[in-house]
Amino acid sequence: MKEEAKRSAKQPGLPPGTLAFVGRKRTESVRIRVVDYGREVLETFDLEQVEDCSDLTRRHTNLWVHVSGLHRVGVVERLGHCFQIPPLILEDILNTGHRPKVELLDQGIFVLLKFFSMDPITAVMEVEQVCFVLTEEALVSFQESDRPIFEPVIKRLSNPRSRLRQSGPDYLLYCLMDLVVDHYFVVLEALGDRIEDLEEALFDEQWRELLDDIHRVRRQCLFMRRASLPLREAVSVLWREEGSLMKETTQPYLKDLYDHVLQALDILDNHREMGSALLEVYLSTQSNRMNEVMKVLTIIATIFIPVTFIAGVYGMNFEHMPELKWPWAYPAVWIVMIGVGVLMLFYFRKKKWL
Questions:
Q1: First-to-last C-alpha distance (Å) of the chain
Q2: Domain around 168
Q3: Within this chain, do residues 95 and 225 fall inside the same structural domain, yes or no?
Q4: How far apart are CA 167 and CA 156, in angstroms?
Q5: Which listed site, 72, 210, 239, 309, has its alpha carbon 20 to 30 Å from 109?
């Protein structure tokens, strides 16, 4: 997960519905992108003044309003007032640490998701919050950063024959959610490749440097699983929702999205178990290597025990030791000590201790 040096937090004790941004502090400007589309119409422009959003509700085509950046609370508040988004929903939108969910409103549907991505160079997992509010007038989406994560959907809108142009905002909501879930598989594939690399590296010489990488992968899997589990319930609620906002023609696509979420969770559980198994293999490998080192040291110490005994006996300073007067005593002692060592090595190898 991407480390965030400074994060703003909401002060405790504030009444419900108080708008305060909770998340990483940013300085870039907030961008409001408007996509007005229909069977024969496609118009894309940036809304320079948030006060002009009241004019958007008078259009008779499908409307998608995308907000990039949540750190300007005033902009989000005025936009919510324009599209009649309840203050409690705006509070959840501004809290980037909120869990994924789907909430059915009196006049709309609120969807909160987590968008995951993986840096291919640093292998750092990045996560940001995306929210969608589907109303009778439009689909309003909120993104924590200004990354163009929804560009593939915008390119599909440029095709007048696409299903997006022929359908309403409910199908657009499905497409955006499906894009978020598709990125889960991209991250899961990167995690799987990283786990395979770590598994192969466990038996190489650089095994001491793998512990931090293993812990990082396990933390990424746990964090992604914690953020993905509520998504299963959220998509299920949206799939089974019966109302005028979600048309019957969109229900099969939501069912397919639900299957994708279940598949992603199964892969994630598998990666999590593999990460735990990697840690166990690492600890077992480290223990085996330590046992090998201790075995070698023990064999060396065992060989030198009789040699040390012989050297200690003839190192005593007694006057009456006849062996010390013999001319061949010194080489004889060397032969005996070397012979004892060779015999012990032969015995150890016969016992397959070496």
A1: 45
A2: 7-285
A3: yes
A4: 12
A5: 72
Together in a domain, 23 and 96: yes
The pairing of beta strand 125-135 with beta strand 108-118: antiparallel
Amino acid found at 265:
L
Per-residue model confidence as pLDDT tens for the chain (354 residues): 554 444 555 566 566 767 777 777 777 788 888 888 888 888 888 887 777 776 776 666 788 889 888 888 888 888 888 888 888 888 888 888 888 888 888 778 898 988 888 887 777 888 888 999 988 778 899 998 888 888 888 888 888 888 888 888 888 888 898 898 888 888 888 888 887 777 777 766 555 567 777 777 878 887 778 777 777 777 777 766 666 567 777 777 777 787 878 878 888 787 777 777 777 777 777 787 788 888 888 888 888 888 888 888 877 777 777 777 778 878 888 888 888 888 888 888 887 777
Report residue 1 as tokens. 């997960």
Residue 199 CB neighbours (<10 A)? 16
CATH number of the domain where residue 148 is located: 3.30.460.20
Q: Do 125 and 105 touch, CB atoms closer than 8 A?
A: no
Report the C-alpha gap between 107 and 94 in whole angstroms: 20
SS3 state at 344: helix
Domains identified in the chain, total number: 2
Q: Of the candidates 72, 45, 73, 49, which has an alpha carbon nearest to the alpha carbon of residue 59?
A: 45
One domain, residues 279 and 345: no
140 and 41 in a common domain: yes
110 φ/ψ sector (left φ>0, alpha ψ -120 to 50, else beta):
beta
Whether residues 337 and 278 fall in one domain: no
Asked whether residue 2 is domain-assigned, the answer is no
Smallest Cα–Cα separation from 118: which of 200, 59, 177, 192?
A: 192
Alpha-carbon distances, residue 264 vs 79, 129, 335 (angstroms): 34, 18, 70
Domain boundary among 254, 285, 316: 285
Tell me whether residue 113 is in a domain.
yes
Residue 267 placed within a domain:
yes
Residue ranges of E strands in 26-159:
31-37, 42-46, 62-68, 101-104, 108-118, 125-135, 139-143
Do the strands 101-104 and 62-68 form a parallel or antiparallel pair, or are they unpaired? unpaired
* Whether residue 145 sits in one domain with residue 105: yes
